[in-house]
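User: Sequence in, structure out. Go.
Assistant: Echoing your sequence, followed by the C-alpha cells.
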Amino acid sequence: MMSAKLSPSPSVICILLTVTVVDDEARRVEAQSDEATQAEVMGVLRNMYGAGIPDPTDILVPRWEQDPFFRGSYANWGVGIDEEELRKLQASVAGRLFFAGDGTGPYFGSLHGAFLEGARVAGTIATCVAGGPCEEEYQPPRRGCTCPAADNFDSQATVDNGSCLYPTSGGDRIVPFSTSFYILVVAAFTFADMM
C-alpha cells in the first residue's frame, strides 16, 4: 500500500493508492524490501501513465503472513453466511462493547471495509456518549409476510418467510412459489434447451 501524507494545505492533492497481492505474490512481496516494492509499483505506474509520476512520500507494506497473530489471513464470509449472521457480528455487547473491522461488514477482507466499519461504530459510540440512543444488543429478525398486498401482511416482520397469501379471482388464497425455485426452474429449462 502506498500513501501520500495528508497535508493541511488545500492546494496539495493527496492520493492514497492501495495494492492488493495474494498467495505466492504476497509472499514474494513480503520477502523483499519496501524500497524494492516501491520501485516495482512505480515502474508499473510509470509504464501506464508516463515518467512524470512522482515518487510517493511514504509507503507501508504490511507483512501479514509474518505476523504471528494473522499468518496471512483475512476476513472472508463462508458459505451460508447471510445478513442475519452479519447483524450478529455487528451487535454490541450490552451497549458497552462494540466490534468493527473488515470482517464485520459487507466489504470483508478490504481496507475500505475496515474503514467503513470503524466509521459506523465510531458514529454509534459518539451518538451514545452524546446522550442519544445506544445500539441495542442483537435481536433476531421477526419472520413473516412482508408484502403489504398480501392478506396476511405482518407489519412487524423484518424477514419474509414466503408465507404470504394472495387473493385469487375464485376467492381462494394462494402461496406463490419462492423466487429461488422460479429461477432454478427457468435455468433448468434454459440449459436443457442449449443441449
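User: And one key feature?
Assistant: Strands lie at 2-3, 16-17, 58-59, 143-144, 159-160, 166-167, 173-174.
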